[in-house]
Amino acid sequence: MNRLINKEALSLEITTHCNLSCPHCFALANITALADMNWNIAQAAMKEGYTLGYRNLHITGGEPFLNKKLFALLDKACNLGYEKIIINTNATLLDTRNCSRLSEFQGRVDLTCSLNGNEKVHDQIRGKGSFLKALKGINKALQKGINVDIFTTVGKYNLEDIPSFVEYIMKSLSGIQGIFFIQLRRVENEYFSFADQLLSPKDVINFVRVVGFLSLYGYPVHFLENALFNVIAKKLELKWLPASQAIFRPDRLFILQDGRITANHSSRKTYGFYQPGSLQNIINSQMYQEDILANTTLCPDCQFYQLCQSCGMLQPSCAERNDLECASPFCQRVLRELH
Ligand code: SF4
Ligand code: SF4
Known about the structure:
The chain has a 9-stranded mixed β-sheet with strand order 7-6-5-4-3-2-1-8-9, with helices on one face. The chain has a single domain, classed as Aldolase class I (TIM Barrel, Alpha-Beta Barrel). The protein has helices at about 40-50, 70-80, 95-105, 120-125, 130-145, 160-170, 200-215, 230-235, 280-285, 285-290, 305-310, 320, 330-339, and strands at about 10-15, 55-60, 85-90, 110-115, 150-155, 180-185, 220-225, 255, 260. The radius of gyration is 19 Å and the shape is globular. The chain contains 13 helices and 9 strands. The chain is of the alpha/beta class. Helix 6 (about 160-170) links the parallel strand 5 (about 150-155) and strand 6 (about 180-185). The site of one iron/sulfur cluster has 12 residues, from loops.
């Protein structure tokens, strides 16, 4: 008998259509077609996920509000019994109609909205006018009582703006739950290289320091899925900083629009295509377990092993994400800077 999954979310990429074309987008750099997820796959996966014990559902894209079946899917998920549904959106389609419909779910549907920094930076990446459009949409959602978190990817281009950005968001988006920072990463098959914008080990340490101080002053700031930042925070003695989850972690499954299954959205490693009954088999598979459990080759011989283990950093940083050209893993180089 398998144990029930009750903390992790099952993730569905319900469309690869998007009304924006951000150059750093890892979702659209990995697509086989511009299309919505097959409705039968979405329904079967939600049902199977619920039976396995998932109670949280994560909906992403592309831009999920472009999928005409989004609300039917939310109805279905609620009828199945999912307790919390989180939708990633670029917020530009949060009009009165969509926000009113979301509010009918009475707190079961939350939003995470992507902003790339202040207006200038955001519009440079996402297109002129997209910042104010997103802000307007987020405010509409907040006014309807919908919980909203902000997701912000950080590279060299916006590292220095973090304090002013946080202050601005807290003033202009009253009622926001939190701001989650994401370290800019590369992906295989990226269609635009951001190599010169990747944070260096020194940048990453400054990043944690800045966010640590914002957190000390009461701002609801977090790091999204980056256990290395827990290790840095420990070394810097920023004890109050909320812990970040690891990006590869038990029970995390992501079903992409075309049915391929991965452990997280930016991963290029797939565990095959979804077929009814396949989720538990994937979780139990050796390949999946090796990806989510503690690394047994590089880490045990590393000088930071105990420290990393105590902070939930169980696998080295993926070379292809941080530093394609460098021989030693990014995590080691960051921690050596602090040693
Ligand atoms: S809005 Fe999101 S899904 Fe659309 S292109 Fe930008 S990063 Fe990709
Ligand atoms: S290789 Fe990286 S994750 Fe592993 S112990 Fe060393 S610093 Fe930590």
